[in-house]
Amino acid sequence: MRKRTDRWRAAAACIALCGVLTACGQKEKAQDLKEPEITAESSEGENGGGSGKEPEITIENGGKEQQAEGTQGADSSGAEEHEYRIIRDQTFEANLNPLGKVTFVSYEPEAGENSTADAWFELKDGDRTVTVLDGVYKDNNREKERFQKVEAVSFPDYNSDGFNDIIIICSYLPLSGTEAGRSEVRIYSGSESGAFTLEKGLSEAADSALAEKTVQSVLGFLGAGRKNEASAGWKQTYIDYLQAQDGEEWVGYQLIYLNDDDIPEFVKIGNSEAVGCMIAAYAGGSVVENQLNRLYFSYIEKGNLLCNSEGNMDSYYDLVYTMADGQLSLVASGYYGAKDNSKLEFDENGDVVYQYEWNGTLMSREEYSQALNAVYDTSKARDGYVWEQYLSREQAIQKISEMQQ
């Protein structure tokens, strides 16, 4: 019987409970794993008494080498067909509600076994597999790209239901061509039963909306933690802020619900295109201001997406933002217009011929529209306000005062 011992510092487990771990370092083959027993050991320091070193986690594997078990999730069934190995730096203990202390284990396909096999993940309680997380594809294989690494894992309660959820970010490389690699978000919602459900639609929406994929940007997209934000002070904070506004510079106000919490944002509408609109949001006990270009914008209510669509003189743009901690962050941008507005060209229908660019890539008008809608579903968008149907400063203060806490 062969025995292999791997050790991690217990500090790594503590860091994992706080949020993000970045995949790196050595990896252990999953075929060496046979129902691993996870125990904690204390190592004595140089001065004795166990004070020198932190406790270490030991994984002991005995018996004949075999492929790792665990394919309870239907979407992970393909994992049985190929050899995998543990990703050591993305395997750690976590204390999850309602499961308690478990070990989160990450696996990657053995090099050369299957170039399109995807990573897979399971939760273990000692030598017992608690659950295997569903993969993105039923056979756990990807058609045109290969797994590169696990970039981050986190266990937030993004929907504030009292149960831990899981966010995983993996990166992939194309099998051929010159395209760059990409990162992909997986969002699993936890439940009272201890099961985790892959939220495919929500994961795809986060992928489309976020230019940079990190745990923090995903949480910002989800509006995590803001549903239960203390509301005792937001109303008075808004009222004090409104009372200090210049009645001539700002002609009106409108309350909107941009992110998924119970505290509205309010729109300040400028007296000219030059002044533009401003989105004011409550965060951390104060008002955060976000200046938009010119006057027009739309937003997806409770969807945490806003599009500033404006321009003039045959030069236009669509700037898509998401909000985190009251601050708008750009996630995608498109520009279109005439190359030379002094020498306009027209098509057979008499429309001006424009050049379209999305996230720095030139494309046709139809491609531009598809790219915009992939990030920002214009069919769900609503105008930020209706001209001359907005609230006066006094009306906005009264409306906020009458709102429930």
UniProtKB/TrEMBL annotation:
Residues 28-37 have a biased composition (Basic and acidic residues). Residues 28-80 are annotated as: Disordered. The lineage of its organism: Bacteria, Bacillati, Bacillota, Clostridia, Lachnospirales. It comes from the Bacteria. It comes from Hungatella hominis. This is VCBS repeat-containing protein.
